[in-house]
Amino acid sequence: MIREKTKLLELNNITKDFSGTRALDDVSIDLFEGEVHCLIGENGAGKSTLIKILSGAEKPDRGIIKIFGKSYLKLEPRESINLSISTIYQDVDLVDTLTVADNIFLGNEIAYSYGAINAKEQVRRARDIMERLNIKIDVKKLVEELSPAQQQTLQIVKALYRDARIIIMDEPTSSLGQEETKALMELIRTITSKGVGVLYISHYLEEVFEIGDRITVLKDGKKINTYNTENIRVDAIIKDMVGREASLFYKRERVPIGKTMAKIMAYSRGEVVKNVTFDVREGEIFGIGGLVGSGRTELVNLLFGIDKRESGSFTLDGREITPSTPKEAIEKGLCMIVENRKDDGLFLIRSVKENIGIVHTDKSNFVIQLKNEIGLVRQMIQRLRIDVSGLDQEVGNLSGGNQQKSIMARWLLTNARLFIFDEPTKGVDIGSKEEIYKFMTELAREGKAIIMVSSDMPELLSMSDRIGIMRSGELVKIIDSHNATEEKILTEFFGLGATN
Amino acid sequence: MSGNKKTRLVDKIVKNQWFFLLLVVVLLSIAAGLINYRFFGIRNILNILEQISVLGLVAAGATIVIISGNFDISVGSMIGLSAVIMAMLMIRGVNEVLAGCIGILVCILCSSINGFFTIVLGAPSFIISLATLGVYHGVALAITEGVIQTIYGQFETISNTKVFGFLPLMFVISVGGYLFIHMILKYTKIGRRVFAIGNNRRAAFLAGINVKSNTLLFFGLNGFLVGVAAVVLLSRLGAALPTTGAGLELKAIGAVVIGGVPITGGMGNAVGTFLGVLLIGVISNMLNLSRVNPYFQEIAYGSLIILSVAVGSLRVGVMKRG
């Protein structure tokens, strides 16, 4: 390098609040041309908020965005694109039914003077771009015929064609295999050698160390440190990611744990869940942790009969129940509080009453005993302190916390034995969060068993009695929570445990 | 506290589309009476009730189907098919009651076929019923060879009977249809499933509801009401053609939408549908009395649907601001 590298991007003291939660707290980072700058941190560390600020989807409360030396207080989406920033999300946004070439030129079509698209020229130029980047994709193929990796690659090509100088990649490898990841790394090296700067977000430390020139660690909305990759070791990074203040950990009351209630044996589904075996005892909260894509949600979906398992058996209270549909699972005494409550849990335009009563009422007589139903729903609203204006209020108008409590109330009315919570406090305010924790503890005290999937490290550590760690579809280790530390768990998440 | 209760009551009334509908029906009726004094004549009113009874039964069935997030646009063809089958059976000396039951079963079967393909193919029921619309009509054409099947004087009991000496039995049957749907929606778990599946299929599935078998059941119930409508219509006309009942499907969907069911399903009730049907009846009667060119009636009817959708979205806007 002879000449000084230009700074493409600089974020200074960016702060952003979301309804009381500080998503970003005084974060400053920068990006040079030809550089890969990696951002790492757990869920909720603020990575996606940072991306949104750069792509113009959110505006910061405080701080300055500098792009090519020019300062902005906020960006509009259009502005961001015009400033040659391009964001590539986990979910591919391409038009499946168009060809590769058509997708590259979508919105910027090359046309004849009379208006029709010049397909030949588009194909020629698309081939040209592919060749220069050393990519082997047939530009005449339809996007739906491409593999996920090829689609990911195509997105990058599309961004480059639009003269993107700053490319943000959000978990680009989460749906890719090993070979494909390698190819993507190659492509990133090619484009950075042409002067493009890449902001690379990933959960996978291995990748980050392979591709990154610098690494910035974010935790709970704060920037911890930025390192040059060659001067830093993995364990130092992990140290940065852990070590939260004690106040962030909920002090959960421990309740006596009884005999084994549920035995889950050899659950498998393709590459997503591989041969998972564990058991849960009465009064126990069994936490399941792991990185995004490690198969946590997929596992509980199999347990509840939502997806088809390839193998596995489920024993509850000594009886084999192995449910194949949610209906069967519910009849056998399971229930599941889903992660995505708006899409998968709630009937948003229906009343609180119907939302809470639905499962109980569906198991009762053909003719609904309305008075009885109202009474039960009232009890639940009181017991869980759900804040509603009336039983007929639309559930869609409740806050996240009250919606979550409504779903919990629904299952409480069913006398379920085993509760599966998938991200129990996602999108829930702090007050409700504590109430939900208390409530889970109460369930445990009553002798119910709980399986809890959580990406929230303090939650996983403070609520679980034991923690099962998933990595690439396998349940690799079960740790007792009193001798678990953030560091130990993260090390297992990343698969670095064997060296210790 | 009492003030609070009062505003809640007002809230409830304003939030219900049926309140507006009732208002519109009443205002329109007064206008109609002012324009033409014969509107309020007992005979005219009974006439309106008679005219809307077939549409009412079809619309009652459509209420359940649309709330559950589905469509059945083949009901007009079903009625044609069922009516010609009943008429042909009666001509060949089959007992009227038996023929009527067979007619109802034909509609239950046809509607269930729509439901079956919808759940098995996972296709929108709109498309499936668009296809079967042609199929059922074709079957009716094939078995009749397009010839009208007349049974004058043979099957008039239903259309001629007056309850308490004045109320048309047809209308009473129609009210029975609304009540049937109202009871199901409000007081049975099937009703809860209709709303749940219509609002959020995935959440319904995860709450342990068998979405497929219930969808089939909703179509079956729809078929039952359509079948009853076919029986009533046949009795009223005394003859059947494959085209008998054509156009009813769209009017029924229109009535349901006017009655406040969003096209995406998930909410609504039978009272709204009743008022929607009544409104259609009142307007068409008004135009008839004023000797408006019948072609304009179609225009009026179309405008009415647009208007009701507009009122619906206005209401949503007001609620969001409030």
Walkthrough of the structure:
The complex is a heterodimer of chains A (500) and B (322). Chain A is an alpha/beta fold. Helix content of chain A is 34%, strand content 25%. Chain A has helices spanning 47-55, 77-82, 100-105, 119-133, 148-161, 178-193, 205-211, 234-241, 296-303, 326-331, 341-345, 352-363, 370-383, 400-412, 430-445, 457-463, 486-494, and strands spanning 7-18, 21-32, 36-40, 62-67, 70-72, 85-88, 166-170, 197-201, 214-219, 222-228, 260-269, 273-281, 285-290, 311-316, 319-320, 334-337, 418-422, 449-453, 466-471, 474-480. A six-stranded mixed beta sheet of chain A has the order 6-7-8-3-9-10, sandwiched between helices. Chain A has a six-stranded mixed beta sheet with strand order 16-17-18-13-19-20, with helices on both faces. Chain A has a four-stranded antiparallel beta sheet with strand order 2-1-4-5, covered by helices on one side. In chain A, strand 1 (7-18) and strand 2 form a beta hairpin. Chain B has a domain at 52-246. In chain B, a hairpin with a 3-residue loop joins strand 2 (162-163) and strand 3. Chain B is globular. Classes of the chains: A alpha/beta (500), B mainly alpha (322). At the A-B interface, helix 10, helix 11 and helix 12 of A face helix 10 and helix 11 of B.
Alpha-carbon distance between the termini of chain B?
20 Å
Number of helices of chain A: 17
Q: How are strands sequenced across the largest beta sheet of chain A?
A: 6-7-8-3-9-10
Which ranges of chain A are low-confidence, i.e. pLDDT below 50, for 5 or more consecutive residues? none
Compute the number of strand runs of chain A: 20
Kindly estimate the percentage of residues of chain B that lie in beta strands according to DSSP: under 5%
